[in-house]
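So, can you check what follows?
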Amino acid sequence: MTSTDALTLLIVDDHESVLGSTISVLQQTYPQANIHTAMTAKTADEALQRELPDLLVMDLSIPAAPGDPSHIESGIDLLRTIMETYPELNIVVQSAHVRSLIRLRPVIDRHQGGFTIADKGLPLKQMLEKVDWSLKGLIYTPRDMRTGMEVKPEWLEVLQLAFKDGLQDKAIADQMNVSERTVRHYWSKVKDVLQVYPEDGKNIRIQTEIRAREEGLID
């Protein structure tokens, strides 16, 4: 892929300054590219339905719809839908919340298009490298996502229901349509994968929440 190729690029970010700088550097590198933008999950989805780009560059912390606040969950949900709907789309996730992508590890593993991750703190040269790799169909994820923890969807659901919705185990069991014993089993698995074990003077549930946030499993 050379800078003279006429590409179609879609950039999704709700920060105008970041959007402007990303557009500027991509225009310099790919001067003939057609660059479109979206600032919410809703407008990004609509743009993809109108025209599938050669490359999607997106942040994770975006509003679900115009007027909504920015949330990582909005970007995670959008990215999951995009990868399941457009399995061959080349994607660059440019975000300060890349750890959160561990929630999508099984989906990322199945993705057939290019998929790279660029932390927003990276120098522009390295960000452009990730763009080039994705356009070439390459996969790049941080090492801790390649060799790190295995997290099952039901464990993530327990974490979300407990620490986002504030539910206790009985209510979690009712919500998930499983027994309380099963929920306790999920907690055991979560604590083990996060390496959270009983310590004198420490609340193990709070320690689990802290570790889950550090690993990007919850916001």
Observations:
- The chain has a mean pLDDT of 90.
- The beta strands are 8-12, 34-38, 55-58, 62-63, 70-71, 91-95, 115-119, 139-140.
- Residues 114 and 134 are 4 Å apart (CA to CA).
